[in-house]
Structures are given as structure tokens and as C-alpha cells.
Hints:
By secondary structure, the protein is an alpha+beta fold. The chain contains three helices and six strands. Strands 1, 2, 3, 4, 5 and 6 form a six-stranded antiparallel sheet that branches.
Amino acid sequence: MTKYTxxxxxxxxxxxxxxxxxxSLFLTYLEEARTRMFSDLLPADEADRRQYAFVxxxxxxxxxxxxVYREEPVDVDVWVVSCRxxxxxxxxxxxxxxxxxxxxTTKMAAYNLDTGRPRRISETEIEFFARxxxx
Length: 135
């Protein structure tokens, strides 16, 4: 399986009074990595992007260790757990070489923002996601 890895820079404002990254920001980290992963897939035209959107229907985060603010980026790995019909499930790990700080999943729906309705995942999207599907 190939994972998409985004080296996410931490921001000083992400830290709480204890110097730890606030746990609510982990969802933002997942979103940022997912958005960058999808950037090669999404159409360049705004109107087309609205027709080929994905929306999150569920997120689960398992916090494994505190992430202390630092200058070095943290890696966010993203991979496809399943992709069929209108449903996409992604897995994540927020980690560095020494430790995993969180593992997560998001369930998503392929969605047409113009009609306000789910849509089937296209063949082009299936081919893109196949690169990141676990065996």
C-alpha cells in the first residue's frame, strides 16, 4: 500500500498552555493532509469541483500520545480503507519517526454541491484512490 504523506508544519498558536497541540486541531491536521492529497484529483474549474465534491460524514480520532509544539513538521499519512458506490473511508496516522500521536478515520460521501445530493464515485476517482488503497 502506498500512503500519501504530508509533512505538516505546526503553528505556535496550536499549542495550549501546557505546550501540547490542542486535540481539537488534530481534525484540522487531517483535513489539511486530505485536501493536499485530493489536490491532484479535483478539477481546476470551480463549477466542476462543486459537482465532484466529497463531504465528511464521520470522523474518529484515537489519541496515542501528546504532541508537543516544535519547529519540525509532523507527518500525516493518509490512505484509502475503502472506496465504493458513493462512500469513501480514509485512514490516517499523525506521526514522526519515533512516535504515533494519533490514528484516525473519516467516512466521506461523494457529493454534488449543486444538487445537494450524493453521487457515485467516478472511474477517474476510483483509479486515483486505488493508488492509496490498503491491500
